[in-house]
Amino acid sequence: MSTDRPTPTTKRAHKHFDSSKLWSPAAARYRNPIICADYSDPDVVRHGDDFYLTASSFNCTPGLPVLHSRDLIHWQIINHAVRNLPSERYQQVQHGCGVWAPAIRHHDGRFWIFFPMPDEGIYVTTAIDPRGRWSPPHLLQEGVGLIDPCPLWDDDGNAYLVHAFAHSRSGIRHRLQVVPMAPDASQLMGEGQVVFEQPEKHPIIEGPKFLKKDGWYYILAPAGGVEEGWQVALRSRAVFGPYEDRIVLAQGTSAVNGPHQGALVDTPNGQWWFVHFQDAGPYGRITHLQPVKWQDGWPLMGLEQDEHGVGEPVSEHPVPAFEQKASPVLLQDTDNFDTPTLGLQWQWHANHHDDWYSLDAEPGRLRLFAQPASGGRLSDAPHLLLQKFPCQQFTATTHLSLPQDGTSVSAGLVVVGATYAGLLVSRQGDRLQVQRVQSDASDELVVLPDASSSDESVVWLRVEVHGDATCLFSYSGDGQSFTSLGGSFQATAGKWIGAKVGIVCTGDESHADFHSFQVHKRTTNEGSKVAATALPPTIS
């Protein structure tokens, strides 16, 4: 039996989000988004007093980021569960493929991440310590179009897996299926059963999360599409149903478009919270936190539930209550390349190789060894070293040098999504030349005519990203006085991911040395109607 579906209040999808308040250590309230960066399809598990989050990583490696928090507000990257993707095809960039929505759980003394690759199948990896080494991905179920898996270990020792289907591969977009699973997740057992399929009420239902509470089986699943959808709760007294359904979160009168897909998680003191994403265009899928209370066996999310139990997102709310206050931590962005390993914020654009870079060749610098160009499309280069936009408004500056004999190499700073732009430095004799590159309407590489040269062997490159995702590039010979090069560039989302910023070194031989990559976040921006910060935007 299902409840009558109320029509969610649908507004024009809002891409702007206000997170202008900085975190205060004495704050009693937080402001959404809690993570103003592209951690798509987040799932969270609590183990003791610690929370762990993982998210989709698509074609980027290392994949499956693992984030840690003690308060559900402040998060920091602690690991990646997958080094490279388990298929040779990912030696080249496969836009929008790779790792889709994962699920993270703790069971039988270890952490488990189930993740789909829609062209290959469903995989699982495990670790006793989420900061340590994760097991090589095990192919649990081969198949095209199987996505968004989530396990459930029942009280009687049996195990099950719920999953959805990728319409682009299977032609199905509104079906959830539960399949018996070996308790050790070595294999699925049988065909399983379709447990929910109501396309007239909940089209494009996907991203299911499985849990059991007070004798009820629950499947939490988003419906209606990424930009304008809603969150659905399904419940049943039997694992295979029948399931009744209720919309528990929708945009309503808020500015948060498509509030859905995420994790329902409890705290040690019995509070419940829902971590979900909001599609923010070129900024990707940013992370929000909603309070949850249980009533009549249903999770009520957000605030101002209507007579049907449909809540809407909060813009701010009292922080979760914990016995001990956690020390604030921040997501990584700046990297001075003065540690033995790359910062965990960095990802390559495809499967990567250790010989693409060195942190030992010139201590205190990152040496990128030149890799061959990829047919003129910078966005197709697997050796792009990128990180997510860390907030809505920021400045990224990198300082690099080329060797005297590096005449066949170009290196620089790039912003990459479906379109791309950047500044590339190359050597012309004993001079360095800075060129602006940008994809045109046909997504071909173009070099803007206003190139400049420097007599110095080093150069600073900078991009300023404003609140509407417009980017301004500039260069400097001394790191103090910067000169703009080219007009503004409108950053765009990639295939299922937000725009990224980073560095690259391309050529037939030689290398480039990057001295640092500095990120400065801004909370005000003249000419922009929206202010933002990457700090967890909590107010006192």
List the helices and strands and how they pair.
Elements: E1 29-31, E2 43-47, E3 50-54, E4 63-69, E5 76-82, E6 103-107, E7 110-117, E8 121-127, E9 138-142, E10 146-153, E11 159-165, H1 167-170, E12 176-181, E13 193-196, E14 209-213, E15 216-223, E16 230-236, E17 244-249, E18 260-266, E19 272-279, E20 285-295, E21 298-301, E22 316-318, E23 347-348, E24 357-358, E25 366-369, E26 385-388, E27 394-401, E28 409-416, E29 420-428, E30 431-439, E31 445-447, E32 452-454, E33 458-465, E34 470-476, E35 483-484, E36 489-490, E37 500-507, E38 511-521
Antiparallel strand pairs: 1-22, 2-3, 3-4, 4-5, 6-7, 7-8, 8-9, 10-11, 11-12, 12-13, 14-15, 15-16, 16-17, 18-19, 19-20, 20-21, 23-26, 24-25, 25-38, 26-37, 27-33, 27-38, 28-29, 28-37, 29-30, 30-31, 30-32, 33-34, 34-35, 34-36
